[in-house]
Amino acid sequence: MSTPSTPRPRRALTQWVGFPVLVLLVYFVAGSILLPLIDGVAHIVAVAVLVAIGLYLLVWLWRWGSGPKAARTSLTSLADVTLHRLGRTADTAGEVTVLTSRTPVPESRFFRSPLTTVRAWRGDFPDAILVPGITSGASRALRVGVQMEGGGKLYLVGFIAPEQDRELLATLEPLAARGEYVSVPAQILQSTIGTGLTIDLDLAVIPAAPNTP
After folding, report:
1. Which residues contact 110 (CB under 8 A, 6 or more apart)?
2. Which of 36, 112, 118, 131 is the most buried (most CB within 10 A)?
3. Nearest-angstrom CA–CA distance, 104 and 171
């Protein structure tokens, strides 16, 4: 079982969003240092080599961002995934107005615009889709993202707090690897900080990950 001292899973350096920037930085620095040191025919050859490498890097960048081994990102559609709606039954679908447990998502207050859109379409009690193994900003730390649907579009509306998502990562990651995700009941609330919005999730509906020997 995960403990606070367990190192947080991190995205491989080669899948980190900043990795292409590092590669391009090395490319441009190497070119700017080497070219002034070379004269004559060798200079022309060096320029040709750098151009060829630059063209290769363009192809590599496209494959890096769109290939089958590309890092997982937030969902853009539910068409090709299997969604397990937890906490919803035939007699409660669309009628959940009370959460049996509450887990605040503090970072959701930074996503006021998408939350406002979701609230307009879904009201105060939409479902929240949990997406494990994505990153926040330029960080390499793997997080559990929270997405909501509104008007036929999916919006990223926050991340589970790092101190609360370790067990969720262990539970949800094997499902996501198979293209399966879970949604849980949620409530959109007025934030107590400023004038933004925030969300609470009912995570008690998610079964715990089985213990491994």
Report:
1. 158, 196
2. 118
3. 19
pTM: 0.67
Q: Is the pLDDT assigned to residue 101 strictly greater than 70?
A: yes
Taking residue 70's Cβ as centre, other Cβ atoms within 10 Å add up to 11
CB atoms within 10 A of CB 126: 22
Nearest to 181 by CA among 82, 104, 92, 74: 82
| DSSP conformation class of 115 | H
Q: Which residues pair with 104 in a beta bridge?
A: 200
- Give the residue carrying structure tokens 């004269």: 39
- Max mean pLDDT range (62-71, 125-134, 200-209): 125-134
CB 146 within 8 A of CB 129: yes
Find where tokens 């290769």 sit: 56
Using the structure block, give the residue that is written with the tokens 């890097």. 57
